[in-house]
Write a structure and sequence with these properties.
By secondary structure, the protein is mainly beta. It contains three helices and 45 strands.
Amino acid sequence: MSETPILFFLFQLLLLILLPGRNIFTRAADGKWDTLLSNIGISAMHMQLLHTDHVIMFDRTDFGLSNISLPNGNCIKNPRSKILPVDCTAHSVDYDVLSNSIRPLTVLTDVWCSSGAVTPDGTLVQTGGFDSGDRVVRLYKPCRSNDATTCDWQEVGRGLTVRRWYATNHILPDGRQIVVGGRRQYNYEFYPKTSSGADTVYNLPFLVQTNDAKIENNLYPFVFLNGDGNLFIFANNRAILFNYFTGSVIRTYPTIPGGDPRSYPSTGSAVLLPLKSTAGGGGGGAEVLLCGGAPKGAFVRANNHDFAPALDTCGRIRIDDPNPQWVMETMPAGRVMGDMVLLPNGDVLIVNGAGSGTAGWEFGADPVLSPVIYRPDNPIGSRFATQNPSSTPRMYHSTAILLRDGRVLVGGSNPHKFYNFTGVSYPTDLTLESFSPSYLDPKFRYLKPRVVSPGPQTRIGYGQKLPIRFTIPPGRLNSTSVMVTMVAPSFTTHSFSMNQRLLILTRGDLKPVGKSTYQIRVDMPGSGNLAPPGYYMLFVVHQDIPSEGVWIQIG
């Protein structure tokens, strides 16, 4: 045997040893798919996990008749609708994760291509949509009851100052939401409205500058709250750091290498990589990872049924770097309309999407069935790992979100103007699946922590020290590989998870407090700049294997 393969093996083994807390047993292709429900009645175009372990999903009210009836035999009359002047079917559902069941919800106006975020008290605020719904705000307050008369959507007509369609929401440190952009809206506004300046709309010239004539390529902009309280906003192929109080651009970042568009309809995806939290309120070092999309001209080509290969590159940039530059990496395959999900151990799952084309009605082809895990802390060249494939294409209008048990919920896919189940390459999909990353494999159960305290729904203040108790199977603890993370549940649609955020909490000493039971003290984030107020899933991670999450409320 030659020395080269031996040396390569030893090098790989050394890498694994030197990467603390990483699971050395992970194979190149891993993960498990399960079908949860074969028909949820709608196509899950939008998803939001709530702190009750329920997921609110909806598509649009003008797709045609859905496959689930409205509750109590109700019907909605809309004389303006050319599609369904009378509709007795639901276009939103409440999915109960624990019982794996759904119930229909009632939306009165069109929620198509809308945006949203969860308020500090756990209420889902959904904003905008199409036609009758483009200025509507809809509220869903979590409840334990299944009574459709008390536990359903409430609509606020004219809740927005201007039309919002394909906009982005982000929760702010004071608990308000900023609503950015949308089709032909080069501005932003806030919700809820205050008595002073309630109807003010603020211009954002950056959205004019990034608009490609007749194509756009700047819808659903990627918006992230930085640790200094400013917003990182990416649209088309470039980004700014923006002070929304003064309306001023703090910094302009370089155009992403190659200059190809990454925003809708040349849809890539993006995440704010895990943040290292401090009790003092800082949070330097924030990085954004942006993957996939479609090359220049792809949308025009797709209009002519000529599908350009999707981009196979990712760009990574540090927000507060004195000389910020994009660091480019290559994925195992090109992907457009993919979803990026932060996992409890700090990895990123890239899932769903197509290998060619763009977003739009039947503008994509070549479904990418195999997810990819991206490990941010690995050396460049060893960060991507291809996972086991799904058998279900998830094309335009697909979604994916993290659940408290560590699975990723996957649904949606309807690249057609209506529900279309036959005679097309990619039929409307009403199924719901879960993807279980390798950390849920039973063979790693001996490493899995279980959180004993804090209990569910514990409320914690900024900067507090929080003792966390957890158990590990006897004799298995590696104390240096324990970390604590908290993950904000996201509003996900059109390949972007709004408000998605993972913090790695600063830890103190770990000590035994009982048989196979340990306590670790962590510092909670110091301000809403790092962790906007609201509900988070708290995880203890041991040797890359996360516990089941516990809901906590900060602020």
